[in-house]
Amino acid sequence: MNTASPVLEVRGVSRAYPLPRPRPLAPRPVRQAVADVSLTLARGESLGIVGESGCGKSTLARLITALEPPDTGHVLIDGQDPNTLGKAALRRLRRAVQMVFQDPLGSLDPRWPVWRIVAEPLAGLAPEVPRADRRARVIDALAAVGLGKDALDRYPHQFSGGQRQRIAIARALVTDPDIVVADEPVSALDVSVQAQVLNLFLELRRRRGLALLFISHDLDVVRHVTERVMVMDRGRVVEAGPTAEVLAHPAHPHTAALMAAVPRLEAAWTGR
Amino acid sequence: MVEAMGQRRRLGVAAWTGGAIAALVLLVGAVSLVWTPHDPAVMDVANKLSGPSWSHPLGTDHFGRDTLSQLMVGARVSIAVSLVAVGLGVGLGVPLGLLAAARAGWIDEAVMRFNDLAFAFPALLTAVLITALLGPGAINAILAIGIFNIPVFARVARGAALALWTRPFIQAARLAGRGRTRISIEHILPNIAGALIVQGTIQFALAVLAEAGLSYLGLGSQPPEVSWGRMLNEAQTFLFLDPRLAILPGLAIVVTVLGLNLLGDGLRDRLDPRLEPRRGGR
Predict the structure, then answer these.
(1) The domain spanning residue B172 has which CATH number?
(2) Domain locations in chain A?
(3) What is the pLDDT of residues B42-97, one digit of tens each?
(4) Distance CA B100, CA A263 (A)
(5) Domains held by chain B: number
(6) What is the pLDDT of residue A263?
(7) Per residue in A155-167, pLDDT tens?
(8) ipTM over cut 0.90
(9) Contact B172 A101 (CB under 8 A)
(10) B206: closest CA among B74, B18, B78, B76?
(11) What is the pTM of this model?
(12) What is the residue range of B199's domain?
């Protein structure tokens, strides 16, 4: 494994969205969702991105997965900028970057059976894999997330929240990616299920050498799965460093504020 | 959670009633293809304007034609014209709506402004104009009714599709390298089918009314073809002499339209995702 060159490099990306005009003919105000963000992710590394909702975390995820192009700056995946590639090359590159979404039910088409959902990235990105082999790869991916063959012909609504997120993770794994971007992957799950899914991420990282970009507002979750962390506030990176260090000694007031916002059971008890 | 998903809302009594009426009309129309009590075109002047009897259960008209047979064939004509007209609206309107939703920007603007333009015309009056220009007849009636179904389905398809395009499973499909056309066909269309079926049922009812209106004015299907609208037209001369001739086709129209509307409303409660409470993921 080549650890010298980063698998993902983000160089000074910005993205602004136009807002509605406050009155007719007035200049359109813009909302700077992401402003001059840079980061690198080494092979097999796990980077957390934390911040309050609306701080630009999810926009950054869409830029990194090339769902949208940045206004300025570059995203480099294995040294290639997806926004400059032709369709065929982009498909090849997309295999390397897959994503897990926050709402597991919303990220699975309710009308599709599980085998079709999990096979979709193969069908779209790996046309050279013969149809006959797709099924085997889908079964492998489902096995990697702890689901059996009996899941293949069932529909998303027949699963629990945690199982649905496993299906979404299986879909992200089926093309054997180098990077998985996980946008709040456990925040819609019951606390009891969160730990299982987080442990699954840890295990997949270890076994597959997966680099993980883990977006969350939950510092406890980030502490559990990431080595490095970046704190974002209003589109900018305000603090970055090893997770343990940043969370133990927050240098930026915004990080400290985020830490303070974590509800503490003990505090509630002792406060009485 | 899983249990809650299992128990989908049932269709209400109104929907079942509507469905039964629609099925009955469909059945009567189908039967008329192979059998009617009498040939609806054969005149029997000796028996004109006769009341219900064993040989003519619903009586005869001023030429002695069997009213029941005419109503049966009229059902078939009504269904055929409406079905093709709605089919025309679905066939052209839904792709347009999907296209508009998939391609934001000027294509969407163009499709929707064209839609607004179409909605600015009073549909039935323009249908009259079209049949007057193209000449009366069933085919032209279908065209005239169908044209105004196109923007209706375009609008419904676009609205429902736009709501879906923001959903994560569509983003997942894009990450899977799927193009907009493919996503529209494989993901969007199956998920908006419910809304389209509901709209289709309601448009079908409107088409039955429009067809009756056009043939009442003599612009729909032509003799010897029978239709409910023309039966009404011919009956108005005898309105005071024999109101039965006007009441029977009128009832057929009202009951059919009512049935389809009841069915449409019932299906909407069940199928239209816009009315569904959010069945959340937690």
Answers:
(1) 1.10.3720.10
(2) 98-176
(3) 888 777 888 788 888 888 887 888 889 999 999 999 999 999 999 999 999 999 99
(4) 46
(5) 1
(6) 64
(7) 999 999 999 999 9
(8) no
(9) yes
(10) B78
(11) 0.84
(12) 66-275
